[in-house]
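Entry 14. Ran structure prediction on the chain below.
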Amino acid sequence: MNNYILYANGASGNHGCEAITRALIKILDAKGCKIFSQNIAEDEKYGISALADLIDAKVRKDYNLNFFKCYFNYKFRDQKFAVDLYPYIQALGKLKHGISRPLAISIGGDNYCYGGANYYGQLDSIFHKSKIHTALVGCSIEPDIINQAGIANDLRKHSAVVAREHITYNALKEVGLTNVHLMPDPAFMLDLIHKPLPREFQSGNTVGLNLSPLVEELSSGGNIVYRNAINLIEHILQNTDMCICLIPHVVWNHSNDFKILTPLYEKYRNTGRVSLLPDSSAEVLKGYISRCRYMIAARTHASIAAYSTGVPTFVLGYSVKSLGIARDIFGDETGYVKSTKNFSCDSELIDAFEFLKSEESSIQAKLQHYTSMAIDKLHNLPKLLDI
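Output, structure tokens:
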């Protein structure tokens, strides 16, 4: 049996990062594993420290040979990530001799969807130099990034690369990788916790709404996402008896869902039908989402919490991850995912909501089928990673 080391995942203030970490520990039966934490205070706050030993991966200034080597490489050899790698070099020097059959798992998520992807290859190499096998699990990768210099070669060095949707899987196969596997996002197996509902939340008759500053930044401009949200809320209040629950899923300072959700709540709090959830762990948020009737989600793991509990969902997608997951579930993303870059009017979310209503039973059946399949496949992950 492997002894697992988890790395390359963001801290738990992004509850998607928390969700995939929790789910992986559950699937791999890896309680007590080691996790390189980007923010120990966050991972302690949301309970990850009860599941694993946290290793500080935050860059700090030390006065020892390893730090000076990293700083020299950064300053004089133009290795821009050299200092970022220092905490891993320092920790692995102590760890590698005390763990039998170690396997280091890079928690993929969307790490390869944006800029700076070469960093992860350099990070992987730290483990390889310590004679530790690595696997990349739960990843979505933009096909264009795979073709960037060095990326495919870095990915080949993993013992296994586990893509979470077909777009990524097919793109990796096309460049000749032979270590690639396809398996749904681990968060389909995240546990949920039921907490008391706000009084404005009707179980089974509430629309969950998760928005993020990022989708507004990536939109076609003019606060079009916020205007769409207002029109959707007005539409629901005027034409249905449903409630609306505003659900934050990321609370990092630089990307905090409360920044866009709080003004909406203040505008409609006196209606008695609109609630704003407090910040909570991923399991608690999944418990709330599971009791919604429909979900409109910007954050990928808010959508996965809904998908995996049978809640018809529309995603404000902005990368391969949303498209790929929707295609795998429904066969086609049309009606289920749309990038805010392509929003052209103020009724986009109303149209999405009405589509979910019209296809409710069909969508629920597809979600139940996919989730059952996902759980069956994810149970095989430990065997796949038995390296």
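The radius of gyration is 21 Å. Will compare against last week's run tomorrow.
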